[in-house]
Amino acid sequence: MSKQIIIDTVRLLIFVILTLNSTLVLSQTGPIKIFRNIDDFAYVQNNDSTKLKYYEKLKYMSLAEDGRINISFGGEIREQYQFFNNENFGDLPPNVEPDNNGHLWHRVMAHAHLRLGDQWRVFGQFNSTFAFGKSFLTPQIDENRLSLHQAFVRWQPNKGRGFFTQIGRQEFGIGSEYIIAMREGPNTRLTFDAALVGVEREKHKLYSFVATPVVSQVGVFDDTHISEYIWTLYWVNQLKKLQLDLYYFGFYGEENRYNYAEGIEQRQSLGIRLYNLPQNPFMYDAIAVYQFGQFEELSISAYNLMVISGYRFKKGKQTWIPGLTLNLSSGDQSPNDDRLNTYNMLYSRPTFGLSAPIGASNIINIKPTLEYDPQPNIRIIMSGYFMYRHSINDGTYTPGRVQTRPLPFQLFQSSEKEIGKQMSLEIWYLKNANWSFFADASYFTPGNYVKETGQGRPITYLSAKASFKF
């Protein structure tokens, strides 16, 4: 390990120690949500304004005498330090320099939420993200200097219950976010231009939408679109001891590539998700997806199977959760048949973190975990990832569905399956409703497949971030 890596590791540990040295006051629930349009600051409406904190006074500003028309404001500032040694296993384009000293991500988001009586709501949010300190492999998610991130109108005729429709630019996070997610980890979150309708009851929810992703650009108000669309029907059903989700997703794209062959893709996904209620000590989340359709002249037949399990042991304020995750995403079986078997992860969150450019296509992953929560607002997670190719006739893809291995001239040359092993440590700390801190470190040992298809150097990844939300 180089001297610089040791220095950056010490920096990270000092940051973690300093942030954990504050008073612990809040569990993981609170009025501020990850989807800011569902923040719950109802308590400020009837409170004496002299007893409210400065930011709470922004959460309810009446625009009518009866208070039925009101507006609230909020925002976020997030600063993140990242360090890579051997990013992408040392295989970088000529215009990208190695990350020798780390780099900074900077995010500012601001929103306004207008309520027009019981039925109508208007929500708008701006986003500004900057990256300092290196040239980036993925500038579209690293930097977006200013953009209209969300702008939608919601109508719910039955006083906030039952049927609703929501039209405009908006984020999605459906199910366990392994199909469609807003991707909180990267600097710039994912958003869509969409029309959404739904029905929400106490134990049953049904959603349907048609959407196209917004393609983030580096400049000011210059985001674009590509010819890519997704539509869905998603049903959530709460049973006596578990929850059942059934869903259908349709996808159309004109610029997708598999084994570097580009074409028009029309893909349908049928899925089922079974998971238990969070208060149970034994936790599980089982997902099965089958995909069919057409990619140019090829018929699509692909699938994904995932089981996330764990058991919660509690002793006073402390919690221990050993767990195991198994994931299988199919890869193409043969370049000479009339089928495409590569699983399309659509708009999933990064399944294996941000350290390595690997997404959930053509992969078998075994992930043991151990979580320790010394207090309700501190979480420490140790994880191991053991990754293999599902098919030797297919490569590996990033979470953004871009193939990185093998290079075009190396197609179908390697019979190795092992992608590698990754060891990770994550530390989460919620100081209060506004301040949160996160640090993680990982080391990825490349397997024979990565070594055969590139430089195959081990990846060291360090990250620390602080976020203030109001």
Q: What do you see in this structure?
A:
With 470 residues, this protein is mainly beta. The chain has one domain (3-469): Porin, CATH 2.40.160. It is 6% helix and 51% strand. The protein contains three helices and 23 strands. It has an 18-stranded antiparallel barrel. It has a two-stranded antiparallel ribbon with strand order 19-20. The longest helix is centred in the N-terminal third of the chain and has 18 residues, at 3-20. It is globular. The two termini are 40 Å apart.
Question: In short, what is this structure?
Answer:
This is Alginate export. The protein is mainly β and 470 residues long.
Report the principal-axis shape.
Answer: globular
What is the strand content? over 45%
Secondary-structure-derived class? mainly beta
Number of helices: 3
Q: What is the H/E string?
A: HEEEEHEEEEEEEEEEEEEEEEEEHE
Task: Return the domain count.
Answer: 1
Q: Average pLDDT across residues?
A: 90
Domain Alginate export: 71-454
Protein name: Alginate export
Pfam families: Alginate_exp
Organism: Marivirga sericea
Distinctive features:
two-stranded antiparallel ribbon, single chain, Porin, mainly beta, 470 residues, 18-stranded antiparallel barrel
Summarize the SSE layout with pairings.
Blueprint: H1 3-20, E1 61-62, E2 69-85, E3 103-116, E4 120-132, H2 139-142, E5 144-155, E6 162-170, E7 192-200, E8 204-213, E9 228-238, E10 242-258, E11 261-276, E12 282-295, E13 298-311, E14 313-315, E15 318-329, E16 339-340, E17 363-375, E18 378-388, E19 396-397, E20 403-405, E21 418-430, E22 435-446, H3 448-452, E23 459-469
Parallel strand pairs: 13-16
Antiparallel strand pairs: 1-2, 2-3, 2-23, 3-4, 4-5, 5-6, 6-7, 7-8, 8-9, 9-10, 10-11, 11-12, 12-13, 13-15, 14-15, 15-17, 17-18, 18-21, 19-20, 21-22, 22-23
